[in-house]
Design brief:
Largest sheet: 3 strands, antiparallel
Oligomer: single chain
Shape: globular
Order of helices and strands: EHEEH
CATH class of the domain at 22-83: Alpha Beta
CATH topology of the domain at 22-83: Alpha-Beta Plaits
Structural class: alpha+beta
Distance between the termini: 49 Å
Number of strands: 3
Amino acid sequence: MAQDPEHDEEPILSEDTLDVSHDLDMVPVFSSTGVDAEVEGDLICGVLANTGIPAVQSGSLFPNLGISVCVPRESLKEAQRLIAEAQAAGPAAAAEAERASEDDH
């Protein structure tokens, strides 16, 4: 590297040093075309991030074309379970969790 003459070697990348499995491929876990799709996608990304599952929301600039939330393939089943639990618990559970977090501070 020109900026660091003491470190001229480029790192050697091979299948031994990279995870080339399909476990990290991003797969859709949620999609919606509803009016509140972007907000719901943001909430789902938040739920997943809080449990350590990386999530990416993608979609159109036009809300009526919908959005999707993707997670690594290896986390798909866990993400589906967490989303189902959050949806089953509903807004009352979210409000209760918010009150509990305010009490802790």
